[in-house]
Design brief:
The longest helix is centred in the first third of the chain and has 30 residues. The chain is an all-alpha fold. The C terminus is likely disordered.
């Protein structure tokens, strides 16, 4: 059995190949920001609000206010990505079950390549229409990929490595963001001549992934539980874990299949209505709500202004520095998540972020009085990102796959993805207005939300480290059918006891 616990080359290849979709998701998130001023000029010429021969001064008029028509099309270019993700996130379960996890990822790569081509060739047509179309198609792809990747990795990863391998999804996302920030610099691809290539590269990881996916084994849980192909599941397990006796894994899947057979097919609507999965669903959705409403995206939006106030003449490099910190501490999470546990890291993350949000507000309020407060705010930004990536960043993505058995898992992943994308869109659209209304006190709002997230995690989120899917499901089942006789406080004590024992 020891050989079955080793990380095989095939498992490493499968996880790497899957996370190329996450890398593409991160690249798509970050790529649109750096070349904004350059692309706006091309929009203006295409829309007829700038002269057609307006080329020499493209980079020299960056501080001029763009035409309202350009602003509208640019805002749509940014927002359409999240709208595409919201729309397609509901289809994760359908696509994942249609032909399997591997073929599902292969199928949706058509969207990524099409979106990349639309943006890469946008200079040949009307740039504003082609970029918006390409971003919409890429958003559709990313909504599917952000569900399929954690679903596949969660099902193929050995229990003892499931947290670390699941965290690689978030690591690939932040790496993609960082790559887009670096190559989007003006002297690389973020300039007048190369920006279509910069956007077009959004589809490049899909090409590599399409070449590698046929080499990856299908999820053995999908093969056995969904299709009933025991022999193929055994072969898949041996490819993923090396030569070992898969009988124990097969026995675990048989138990899960027996449970699934006793259940009706779980659709999204049935999952929402079912009291059987209510506790798991509450935890899963709250994890994603807390992640997005933590203010992490608002921090990124506001960091450039804070760096500028601190006297940094090139705040874009400081923003890249945030991206580097983002990536480094996600790697720290990869190392810690299967040692410290999901619940512990999430608590540390939210607690630290809460303190940083309050510190950020103090720094902003007293910025005009004490110049050195800008450095307090800068430090708070960096620490905020560090605490986010230690736990609240990566863990919500893969813990959903851990909380649900095979039957409801695709529907749960779809709902969680929809929740995440929707909240991302709400924050992106509303933050400028909230910041204008609250000014320097805006991060106190996020501090309050983070405090609430910390309390919720402490009392309601179980520890899933080292537990099989069946054990996790059984724990929720026990809590639902065997509540303590006296008070809800005893429930929380029992939960805390079981969490610490794990």
């Amino acid at each position: 059995m020891d050989s079955g616990k080793k990380l095989s080359g095939t498992l490493a290849l499968a996880v790497f190949t899957a996370t190329l979709g996450s890398l593409q998701y991160g690249y798509g998130l970050g790529v649109i920001n750096a070349p904004q001023k350059v692309i706006e000029k091309h929009y203006g010429r295409s829309l007829g609000v700038l002269p057609q021969n307006f080329t020499r001064s493209l980079n020299s008029t960056e501080d001029e206010e763009p035409h309202p028509l350009v602003v509208m099309y640019w805002s749509l270019s940014v927002a359409i990505f999240s709208i595409g993700g919201v729309c397609s996130s509901f289809l994760v379960g359908f696509v994942g079950d249609l032909r399997g996890r591997v073929k599902g990822m292969l199928m949706v790569n058509v969207l990524a390549i099409a979106g990349g081509l639309l943006m890469g060739l946008s200079i040949l047509g009307k740039p504003h229409l082609m970029v918006i179309s390409g971003r919409a198609v890429m958003g559709l792809y990313c909504g599917l990929s952000s569900g399929l990747v954690p679903l596949y990795i969660g099902e193929i990863a050995p229990v003892e490595y499931r947290g670390a391998l699941g965290t690689l999804h978030q690591l690939a996302i932040v790496t993609g963001i960082l790559i887009s920030q670096v190559i989007g610099l003006d002297f690389l691809l973020g300039n007048d001549a190369m920006w279509p290539l910069l956007l077009g590269l959004s589809g490049a990881p899909a090409v590599l992934q399409s070449l590698l996916l046929p080499l990856c084994p299908e999820s053995p849980r999908y093969l056995f539980i969904k299709l009933g192909k025991e022999e193929e599941a055994r072969k898949s397990l041996k490819r993923l874990k090396g030569e070992y006796d898969p009988s124990e894994d097969i026995a675990g899947m048989k138990k899960e299949k027996d449970q699934v057979m006793r259940e009706e097919q779980v659709s999204i609507l049935k999952l929402v209505r079912s009291s059987q999965y209510r506790q798991q669903l509450l935890v899963a959705l709250m994890m994603h709500l807390s992640q997005q409403f933590s203010g992490i995206n608002a921090i990124f939006y506001y960091s450039t202004a804070i760096f500028h106030k601190a006297g940094i003449t090139q705040p874009v490099y400081a923003t890249i520095g945030v991206g580097v910190i983002n990536t480094i501490f996600t790697m720290v999470s990869v190392v810690l998540v299967d040692r410290a546990g999901r619940r512990t890291l999430t608590l540390i993350g939210y607690g630290g972020m809460c303190c940083c949000a309050v510190t950020m507000s103090v720094g902003l309020v007293f910025l005009s009085t004490f110049a050195w407060m800008s450095y307090v705010s800068m430090t708070a930004i960096f620490l905020f990102v560090c605490f986010f990536e230690i736990g609240p960043g990566p863990i919500p993505w893969f813990i959903v796959a851990e909380l649900f058995s095979q039957g409801p898992r695709p529907a749960a992943m779809a709902l969680a993805g929809f929740c995440n994308w929707s909240c991302n869109f709400v924050i992106g659209m509303s933050f400028p207005y909230i910041e204008a209304l609250c000014g320097s006190y805006v991060f106190l709002i996020f501090g309050a939300i983070l405090f609430g997230s910390t309390v919720f995690t402490y009392f309601r989120v179980p520890e899933t480290k080292g537990k099989t899917f069946e054990e996790i499901a059984a724990e929720f089942h026990h809590r639902r059918h065997h509540p303590p006789p006296d008070s809800s406080a005893a429930t929380e004590l029992e939960l805390l006891k079981s969490s610490t024992e794990a």
